[in-house]
Write a structure and sequence with these properties.
calcium, Glycosyltransferase, binds 1-deoxymannojirimycin
Length: 563
């Protein structure tokens, strides 16, 4: 405002009116003008208040910085797509110049069981498409969408299952959405989400469907996402930070601890490495290798590791050892990384086989009175707990897969058979035929309790895949049809107790056939994993030969690289 501009006075609030002379002294700068046009008393009040506010803000800022550097490691990055990533599909074409580029073709289902699974997939997809299209997951009872990442999670997680089941129409719907609406600049939610979950479900889904179809659109999306996920690895330890805001391109640890979860930091390497192999750009694989090396370098307890690891030093933290929640897929990926890299990196195999020997020594027990073998937990040094998460059931298939490449280690197959049988019992012993989330085993020879015990808090079933996954490996590695029959029994239980008018739902109580209490959630992994493994289990031959393919932890098949 110029000096001579008329000063507007609010006559409804005439606190103090400046004289014409005072107005002349008013500065052109609005803030000073505001200040000098006050009465001296008002000016004093303003000076005191502003000083007080400045000191307060300074104190709050200092306190916050100290707190955040102690408990969280905040890292933010600018996003600059590298030269290499501008046209990754062209790189691929160059790389494949002398190779045939073609997708894998899947025929129609071959038997009644596969047809039933395909019908289940169609039922789940139809409900998602009707009530939650483009959103992350479906709430099948409320018939409304739920938002997690803002990335159409169910579409990307399920697309390879649709393709494998030869559901052409549904596959085309999904492909069309990924091509036209998977847009991280538009759809992403502005919040921090699990780096691990986005990697295994979304990046894994895109990579897998790319390999099955060789359709460049999926590689393009995978690169867009991979570039942002890479930000999480830019840490002093080399381990990826737990949470990432893909929209703002910022990563950080959890708010409550500077530790990371072992399973989460150990279960992103297959995907990042694969992204490098298809683009020819090493940066993703370098990040994967660096984080894997950090975990390899740390001291272990006969191959077993605690479920937390420091984001700052990379050392394992705490004493809890579990192959269930927070531990599971770290072990799974040791074996699969060895396979992915053509069995040429002995560290992966050595760490894996050592961990299985650690399981035998510290965690492998048999329950009274039914000879059910299980994998317990360590809650402290030598403090054994006979608790087993349903998640641990993945280990049976994982051990059988390890045995396939080292047939001389017959104990691997024996353990796999025993654990599969126990996991099957976790289903068969419940009135619904569905497993609870967690069970305990009876170790007291004197007690007349049953071998498998369930606590009230653990009676929910989340449509999880781990046993079906192991049945798939067990059937195709041993040829024993009992595994298909167990799978069929379990599939029918899912149909009976989790199928809704629209889609499928997790349930709260596997003990009461008349009151299972649907939880109103259809997990994306039900379509990505559970139904996919059922379908593959019931196929007479293995559609994904074990020397050519590995599945990431979300059941997305990725190729094995031999060179
Ligand atoms: C999936 O996201 C993956 O299988 C993960 O490894 C464990 N949790 C769910 C399924 O239970």
């Amino acid at each position: 405002m110029k000096k001579d501009t008329p000063f507007i006075i609010d006559f409804n609030n005439p606190v103090w009116l400046p004289t014409v002379d005072e107005l002349k002294h008013c500065t052109a700068l609005p803030l000073l003008e505001f200040f000098c046009c006050r009465s001296p008393r008002q000016q004093r009040t303003w000076i005191v208040s502003l000083s007080f506010l400045s000191i307060l803000s300074l104190l709050v800022y200092i306190g916050y910085s100290k707190h955040s550097s102690k408990f969280t490691q905040h890292i933010s990055f600018e996003y600059h797509p590298s030269e290499n990533n501008k046209e990754p599909w062209q790189q691929k074409q160059r790389r494949h110049e002398n190779q045939r580029i073609e997708g894998k073709v899947f025929a129609l289902p071959t038997n009644e069981r596969q047809i039933a699974v395909r019908d289940a997939m169609r039922h789940a997809w139809k409900a998602y498409r009707t009530y939650a299209w483009g959103f992350d997951e479906l709430e099948p009872i409320s018939k409304r969408p739920s938002v997690w990442f803002g990335l159409g999670l169910t579409i990307v997680d399920a697309i390879d299952t649709l393709y494998i089941m030869n559901m052409t129409q549904e596959y085309n719907q999904a492909r069309e959405w990924i091509e036209n609406y998977f847009n991280m600049d538009v759809n992403l939610v502005d919040k921090f989400n699990s780096h691990f979950e986005i990697t295994i479900r979304i990046l894994g889904g895109l990579l897998s469907i790319y390999h099955l179809t060789m359709d460049d659109v999926f590689m393009k999306r995978a690169v867009e996402l991979g570039d942002r996920l890479l930000l999480s690895f830019n840490t002093s330890s080399g381990l990826p930070l737990a949470e990432i805001n893909l929209k703002r391109k910022i990563a950080h640890t959890y708010g409550w601890t500077s530790d990371l979860t072992t399973a989460e930091v150990g279960t992103v390497q297959l995907e990042m490495r694969d992204l490098s192999r298809i683009t020819g750009d090493n940066k993703y694989e370098n990040a994967a290798d660096r984080s894997a090396a950090v975990l390899h370098d740390q001291a272990k307890n006969d191959g077993l590791v605690p479920i937390f690891v420091s984001s700052i030093t990379g050392q394992f933290s705490g004493e809890i050892i579990s192959l269930g929640a927070r531990g599971d897929s770290y072990y799974e990926y040791l074996l699969k990384q060895w396979l992915q890299t053509g069995r040429k990196r002995p560290n992966f195999w050595n760490d894996w086989i050592e961990s299985i020997d650690g399981v035998r020594k510290h965690l492998w027990r048999v329950a009274y009175s039914e000879n059910f073998y299980f994998v317990g937990e360590l809650l402290g040094i030598s403090v054994f707990s006979p608790k087993m998460d349903h998640l641990v059931c993945f280990l049976a298939g994982n051990m059988a897969l390890g045995w396939h490449f080292r047939r001389d280690l017959t104990y691997l197959l024996d353990m796999a058979k025993n654990l599969t049988a126990t996991c099957y019992e976790m289903y068969a012993q419940q009135p619904t035929g569905l497993s609870p989330e967690i069970v305990y085993f009876n170790l007291d020879a004197e007690s007349n309790k049953s071998a498998i015990l369930v606590e009230d808090n653990d009676v929910h079933n989340l449509l999880r895949p781990e046993l079906v996954e192991s049945l798939y490996y067990m059937y195709h590695l041993t040829g024993d049809k009992i595994y298909q029959d167990w799978g069929w029994q379990i599939f029918q239980s899912f149909e009976k107790y989790t199928r809704q008018n629209d889609g499928y739902s997790s349930i709260n109580d596997v003990r009461h056939v008349d009151d299972v209490q649907p939880r109103d959630k259809m997990e994306s992994y039900f379509l990505a994993e559970t139904l996919k493994y059922f379908y593959l289990l019931f196929h007479p031959t293995n559609l994904f030969p074990f020397h050519q393919w590995i599945f990431n932890t979300e059941a997305h098949p990725l190729p094995i690289y031999t060179n």
